[in-house]
Amino acid sequence: MAEQQPDAASPSRTGGDLPMQEVPPQPVSLRINGKTYSFMLEPRVTLLDALREVVRLSGTKKGCDRGQCGACTVLVDGQRINACLTLAIMQEGREITTIEGLANDHGLHPMQQAFLDCDGLQCGYCTPGQICSAVALLEEVKAGQASAIDPRKAADAASLSDEEIRERMSGNICRCGAYPNIVAAIRMAAGASR
User: Fold this and answer.
1) Are residues 96 and 167 in the same domain?
2) Is residue 11 domain-resident?
3) Mean pLDDT of the chain, nearest integer
4) Residue 12 domain flag
5) Dihedral (CA of 96, 97, 99, 100) sign
6) What are residue 31's phi and psi, to 5 degrees?
7) Position 3 in a domain
8) End of a domain among 76, 101, 126?
9) How many domains does the chain have?
Protein backbone atom coordinates (compact mmCIF):
# COMPACT_ATOMS: atom_id res chain seq x y z
CA MET A 1 0.00 0.00 0.00
CA ALA A 2 1.35 3.41 -0.95
CA GLU A 3 2.25 5.82 1.83
CA GLN A 4 -0.11 8.78 2.01
CA GLN A 5 1.56 12.18 1.58
CA PRO A 6 0.15 15.17 3.49
CA ASP A 7 -1.26 18.07 1.51
CA ALA A 8 0.96 21.14 1.30
CA ALA A 9 -1.75 23.06 3.15
CA SER A 10 -2.15 20.54 5.96
CA PRO A 11 0.45 20.13 8.69
CA SER A 12 2.55 16.99 8.88
CA ARG A 13 1.50 14.89 11.85
CA THR A 14 4.51 12.58 11.72
CA GLY A 15 7.10 15.14 12.80
CA GLY A 16 4.89 17.01 15.21
CA ASP A 17 5.05 20.08 12.98
CA LEU A 18 2.17 22.44 13.50
CA PRO A 19 1.38 25.36 11.27
CA MET A 20 2.76 28.65 12.55
CA GLN A 21 0.02 30.66 14.14
CA GLU A 22 -0.10 34.24 13.00
CA VAL A 23 0.62 36.49 15.94
CA PRO A 24 -0.56 40.06 15.64
CA PRO A 25 1.95 42.85 16.32
CA GLN A 26 1.92 44.19 19.87
CA PRO A 27 2.74 47.66 21.15
CA VAL A 28 6.32 47.71 22.42
CA SER A 29 8.19 50.53 24.12
CA LEU A 30 11.95 50.18 24.48
CA ARG A 31 14.39 52.57 26.13
CA ILE A 32 17.53 52.46 24.01
CA ASN A 33 20.56 54.68 24.59
CA GLY A 34 18.53 57.05 26.73
CA LYS A 35 15.71 57.48 24.21
CA THR A 36 12.29 55.80 24.22
CA TYR A 37 11.11 54.07 21.04
CA SER A 38 7.48 52.94 20.68
CA PHE A 39 6.30 50.76 17.83
CA MET A 40 4.18 47.75 16.93
CA LEU A 41 6.21 44.57 16.91
CA GLU A 42 5.50 40.88 16.40
CA PRO A 43 6.23 39.31 19.82
CA ARG A 44 8.71 36.74 18.43
CA VAL A 45 11.13 39.41 17.14
CA THR A 46 14.50 39.26 18.87
CA LEU A 47 16.05 42.31 20.46
CA LEU A 48 18.82 42.09 17.85
CA ASP A 49 16.39 42.26 14.94
CA ALA A 50 14.44 45.09 16.60
CA LEU A 51 17.64 47.10 17.08
CA ARG A 52 18.90 46.55 13.54
CA GLU A 53 15.73 46.36 11.45
CA VAL A 54 13.23 48.52 13.33
CA VAL A 55 15.26 51.12 15.24
CA ARG A 56 18.01 51.08 12.55
CA LEU A 57 20.92 50.92 15.00
CA SER A 58 23.29 48.83 12.92
CA GLY A 59 26.26 48.86 15.32
CA THR A 60 25.06 45.70 17.04
CA LYS A 61 26.05 42.89 14.68
CA LYS A 62 24.36 39.64 13.73
CA GLY A 63 27.02 36.95 13.74
CA CYS A 64 25.95 33.41 14.49
CA ASP A 65 22.36 34.24 15.59
CA ARG A 66 22.76 31.45 18.18
CA GLY A 67 24.41 33.18 21.14
CA GLN A 68 27.83 31.67 20.46
CA CYS A 69 29.91 34.52 19.01
CA GLY A 70 29.00 37.59 21.08
CA ALA A 71 28.84 39.98 18.11
CA CYS A 72 25.36 41.03 19.23
CA THR A 73 26.33 41.82 22.84
CA VAL A 74 24.51 44.83 24.29
CA LEU A 75 23.97 46.06 27.83
CA VAL A 76 20.56 45.72 29.47
CA ASP A 77 20.40 47.46 32.83
CA GLY A 78 24.19 47.34 32.80
CA GLN A 79 24.38 43.57 32.28
CA ARG A 80 25.75 42.14 29.04
CA ILE A 81 23.41 39.95 27.06
CA ASN A 82 23.32 38.42 23.60
CA ALA A 83 20.61 40.37 21.80
CA CYS A 84 19.98 37.43 19.48
CA LEU A 85 18.81 35.25 22.39
CA THR A 86 16.17 37.51 23.90
CA LEU A 87 12.90 38.83 22.59
CA ALA A 88 12.52 42.57 22.25
CA ILE A 89 9.18 42.54 24.05
CA MET A 90 10.92 41.03 27.11
CA GLN A 91 13.09 44.14 27.47
CA GLU A 92 10.30 46.64 28.10
CA GLY A 93 11.04 48.77 31.15
CA ARG A 94 14.78 48.13 30.96
CA GLU A 95 17.61 50.41 29.87
CA ILE A 96 19.27 49.06 26.74
CA THR A 97 22.69 50.40 25.75
CA THR A 98 24.21 49.62 22.38
CA ILE A 99 27.64 50.56 21.02
CA GLU A 100 26.07 53.78 19.72
CA GLY A 101 25.02 54.73 23.26
CA LEU A 102 28.43 54.43 24.91
CA ALA A 103 29.91 57.66 23.52
CA ASN A 104 28.59 61.00 24.72
CA ASP A 105 28.91 64.69 23.83
CA HIS A 106 32.41 64.74 25.35
CA GLY A 107 33.74 61.98 23.11
CA LEU A 108 34.21 58.26 23.00
CA HIS A 109 33.70 56.00 25.99
CA PRO A 110 37.11 55.16 27.56
CA MET A 111 36.73 51.56 26.37
CA GLN A 112 36.08 52.68 22.79
CA GLN A 113 39.14 54.92 22.95
CA ALA A 114 41.27 52.12 24.40
CA PHE A 115 40.25 49.79 21.56
CA LEU A 116 41.37 52.45 19.09
CA ASP A 117 44.60 53.22 20.93
CA CYS A 118 45.54 49.53 21.31
CA ASP A 119 44.39 48.53 17.84
CA GLY A 120 41.99 46.06 19.46
CA LEU A 121 40.30 45.26 16.18
CA GLN A 122 41.03 44.04 12.70
CA CYS A 123 37.96 43.64 10.50
CA GLY A 124 35.85 45.32 13.19
CA TYR A 125 32.78 43.10 12.87
CA CYS A 126 32.97 41.76 16.43
CA THR A 127 34.22 45.02 17.91
CA PRO A 128 30.87 46.52 19.05
CA GLY A 129 30.06 43.35 20.98
CA GLN A 130 33.61 43.12 22.32
CA ILE A 131 33.46 46.71 23.59
CA CYS A 132 30.02 46.33 25.21
CA SER A 133 31.18 43.11 26.87
CA ALA A 134 34.40 44.77 28.08
CA VAL A 135 32.45 47.69 29.58
CA ALA A 136 30.29 45.20 31.48
CA LEU A 137 33.39 43.25 32.55
CA LEU A 138 34.78 46.30 34.34
CA GLU A 139 31.43 46.90 36.04
CA GLU A 140 31.23 43.25 37.12
CA VAL A 141 34.67 43.50 38.69
CA LYS A 142 33.72 46.77 40.38
CA ALA A 143 30.64 45.02 41.81
CA GLY A 144 32.85 42.21 43.13
CA GLN A 145 31.63 39.42 40.87
CA ALA A 146 33.92 36.42 40.88
CA SER A 147 35.00 34.57 37.74
CA ALA A 148 35.61 30.94 36.82
CA ILE A 149 39.38 31.53 36.92
CA ASP A 150 39.40 33.11 40.37
CA PRO A 151 36.35 32.47 42.59
CA ARG A 152 37.53 35.18 44.97
CA LYS A 153 36.33 38.69 44.40
CA ALA A 154 38.76 40.71 42.31
CA ALA A 155 40.16 43.69 44.18
CA ASP A 156 39.85 45.93 41.14
CA ALA A 157 39.99 45.71 37.36
CA ALA A 158 43.64 46.78 37.26
CA SER A 159 44.56 43.66 39.27
CA LEU A 160 43.04 41.22 36.76
CA SER A 161 45.45 38.85 35.05
CA ASP A 162 45.42 38.51 31.28
CA GLU A 163 44.11 34.98 31.76
CA GLU A 164 41.16 36.26 33.81
CA ILE A 165 40.36 38.99 31.29
CA ARG A 166 40.35 36.35 28.53
CA GLU A 167 38.06 34.11 30.59
CA ARG A 168 35.67 36.95 31.36
CA MET A 169 35.58 37.82 27.64
CA SER A 170 35.22 34.20 26.48
CA GLY A 171 31.68 34.77 25.18
CA ASN A 172 33.03 37.10 22.50
CA ILE A 173 34.85 35.59 19.55
CA CYS A 174 37.19 37.49 17.23
CA ARG A 175 37.73 35.54 14.03
CA CYS A 176 40.66 37.80 13.14
CA GLY A 177 42.49 36.89 16.34
CA ALA A 178 42.98 40.38 17.80
CA TYR A 179 42.85 38.94 21.34
CA PRO A 180 46.21 40.27 22.63
CA ASN A 181 45.23 43.81 21.62
CA ILE A 182 41.72 43.38 23.05
CA VAL A 183 43.22 42.34 26.40
CA ALA A 184 45.59 45.34 26.23
CA ALA A 185 42.65 47.66 25.52
CA ILE A 186 40.69 46.33 28.49
CA ARG A 187 43.75 46.72 30.69
CA MET A 188 44.20 50.32 29.45
CA ALA A 189 40.54 51.18 30.07
CA ALA A 190 40.71 49.58 33.52
CA GLY A 191 43.62 51.85 34.37
CA ALA A 192 41.74 54.89 33.06
CA SER A 193 38.67 54.08 35.16
CA ARG A 194 40.58 53.93 38.45
Assistant:
1) no
2) no
3) 88
4) no
5) positive
6) -100, 110
7) no
8) 101
9) 2
Residue 65 lies inside a defined structural domain of this protein = yes
To the nearest 10 degrees (0 to 180), the angle between helices 179-192 and 110-117 is: 140
Dihedral of CA 128/133/139/141: which sign? negative
Whether residue 78 is found in the same domain as residue 129 = no
Range of the domain at 128: 110-192
150-171 pLDDT, tens digit each: 776 666 777 888 999 999 999 9
Report CA 22 to chain centroid distance, whole Å: 28
Residues in the chain: 194
What's the pTM? Answer: 0.85
How far apart (Å, rounded) are the C-alpha atoms in residues 169 and 29? 30
Question: What type of residue sits at position 106?
Answer: H
Rounded CA separation 4/149 (Å)? 57
Task: Tell me which residue of 134, 168, 126 sits closest to 148, measured CA to CA.
Answer: 168
pLDDT by residue (tens digit) across 93-132?
Answer: 999 999 999 999 999 999 999 999 999 999 999 999 999 9
